[in-house]
Amino acid sequence: MEPQLFLDLRHIRKEFGAFTALHDINLGIRKGEFVCFLGPSGCGKTTLLRIIAGLEVQSSGEVWQAERDISRLPPAQRDYGIVFQSYALFPNLSVADNVAYGLVNRRTPRAEVQQRVAELVKLVGLPGSEGKYPAQLSGGQQQRIALARALATSPGLLLLDEPLSALDALERLRLRSEIRALQQKLGVTTIMVTHDQEEALSVADRIVVMNHGVIEQVGTPLDIYREPASPFVADFVGKVNVLPARVASGSLRFGSLSIPCEGADRDARVYLRPEDVLARPIGVDDPHVFDASIEKIEFLGSYCHVRVNSPALDSNKLTVYLSLNFLSEQSLEVGSPLKLKLLPERIKVF
């Protein structure tokens, strides 16, 4: 059974004077789904989130939540909790009072507030911190408290505006997995804005890739990565090699390499992920094998970015992923020869 549509954005447009930040955005989000708005700075993702929250008013279009038109409702009358990049905790209030803020405004009985605060502080992994103040907490702990505050009123929708970008790398990894686990446990519909591709790929049920105020593609992380709908998506999400090519007589040719390709004769560009060029296993009779040599090795821990050149690619360079173990086993270094194999089914042509 198809999950219920919880949030429905219909023809959303936002203009700031002569500048159009959002162009006719249409998007449906299902109940219990974790969706990431992903895109570069200035693409409109935060503006769209603020329209959902009622913090910005759309120039035209409608926002429906749980089959209710909330397009013109003020933020206080919308059913959501929000977490900002800057934590936005009240510095003069204790952890307990920060978490309880929304409940107190709703005149919830004191005993119920205390019980809910204790439950949420434990849920975000900071039991016993109720009496502390934000200045006594690390950045990651402050963001956990901001998350607890957003969840205190049991909202139907959780909005996360780049909640991890102010944290260090290790804390970011830890907290993103905790947010995802918490979201799955509570089943709350969640939208997170991010410009971090790895973050979106690791936590989202679906990713909405945005650019210049339009939606380029909506899909699962695997769909977005493996089946990009446009050159922008292919280039923005993950690392990719881009090579000039030509489609002619039923073949795609780039350099001296050729693979079958349907369609009219035309100039094209090949988009090829580094992991889709293999150094092993390569059999004697394998097709699409070519000789290369290593030009540069960029060490990244367990694997390396290896830039190669090859007569088969003319003057174009190619980046491939090779494990550190493989490089060691084969005694490969800058200048070493190397055989590589293409996976034609993984090549995208635009």
Structure write-up:
The protein is an alpha+beta fold. The chain is built from nine helices and 20 strands. 26% of the residues lie in helices and 35% in strands. The strands form four sheets. It has a six-stranded mixed β-sheet with strand order 6-7-8-3-9-10, with helices on both faces. It has a five-stranded antiparallel β-sheet with strand order 13-12-11-14-20. 35% of the residues are buried.
Secondary structure tally, helices: 9
Q: Structural class, judged by helices and strands?
A: alpha+beta
Q: Order of strands across the widest beta sheet?
A: 6-7-8-3-9-10
* Strand residues, percent: 25-35%
Query: Which word captures the global form?
Result: globular
Distance between the termini: 36 Å
Mean pLDDT: 94
Quaternary structure type:
single chain
Order of helices and strands: EEEHEEEHHHEHEHEEHHEEEEEEEEHEE
Low-confidence stretches: none
- The total beta strand count reads 20
- The helical percent reads 25-40%
Give a short account of the largest sheet.
Answer: 6 strands, mixed
Radius of gyration: 25 Å
